[in-house]
Amino acid sequence: MLSLLTTNFTRFYREEHHFDHLRDEVLPQLAARAKAGGRVRIWSAGCSQGQEPYTIALTVLSVLPDVERYDFKILATDIDPLVIAHGKAGVYDDAAIETVAPPMRKKWFKPAGRPGEWQVDPTVQRLISFRELNLMGNWPFKGPFDVLFCRNVVIYFDEPTQARIWTRYRDMLADGGWLYIGHSERLSGEAKDDFRTAGITTYEKTGSK
After folding, report:
1. pTM of this prediction exceeds 0.90
2. Which is nearest to 78 in space by CA: 17, 13, 149?
3. Most buried residue among 18, 66, 97, 139 by CB atoms closer than 10 A?
4. Are 187 and 166 in contact (CB under 8 A)?
5. Any idea where the domains of the chain sit in the sequence?
């Protein structure tokens, strides 16, 4: 029933400006922290079939190729167990990886069992933990997260619920952390006062209440 009720449209590098910003403005500082022995955490909330967290991981690897040496992890969550299973498997067809640049495809995707299917490289997979999570329920983790992607998810809730979720995201982000939301979404409620706009649907947390 969850699979029938939820919307799971996504693709690799969807809303590419977010990944450009992540690569150029955010990851250099996070990479330096990781190299100095610090902890880095990124959350993809509403990850669908996994294209978003895998794109985040590919972006991280473009900046920090030896990321496996450090305490650097990506959490990917979704309410639908079927899309979580898809993400864990990391197998995509030709059409799904069309938006991945050819050099990245060659490096990080290998032929899978059937013609026209591609397996994400284990190095990329090991960066990500896929978990089932209902955004309206309890969150069994405390954070803080340095980066949070929640794009084209909150738009499906009513306005009071949206405001509550933005507030919960604010509380999960470290000060100076980054929030990327969907092109049709806007921050609302008390949380919006704790973020500054840093680009199209890109926000930096400036403080906490």
Report:
1. yes
2. 149
3. 18
4. yes
5. 41-205
Model confidence at 84, in pLDDT bands (50, 70, 90)?
Answer: very high
Overall average pLDDT of the 48-71 stretch: 98
The pLDDT of 135-157, averaged and rounded, is 94
Please provide the size of the chain in residues: 209
CATH number for region 41-205: 3.40.50.150
Strands 71-78 and 39-45 come out as: parallel
- Average pLDDT value for residue range 124-146: 96
Count of CB atoms within 10 A of residue 67's CB?
Answer: 22
* Look-up of token digits 């190095």: 123
Rg of the chain's alpha carbons, rounded to an integer? 17
Peptide bond into 144 cis (omega under 30): yes
Overall average pLDDT of the 160-186 stretch: 95
What is residue 3's predicted lDDT score, i.e. its pLDDT? 44
Distance CA 32, CA 12 (A): 26
What secondary structure does DSSP assign to the chain, as a single string? Answer: -HHHHS-----TTSSHHHHHHIIIIIHHHHHHHHHTT-EEEEEEES-TTTHHHHHHHHHHHHH-TTGGGSEEEEEEEES-HHHHHHHHHTEEETTTTTTS-HHHHHHHEEE-SSTTEEEEPHHHHTTEEEEE--TTS--S----EEEEEE-SSGGGS-HHHHHHHHHHHHHHEEEEEEEEE-TT----SGGGGGEEEEETTEEEE----
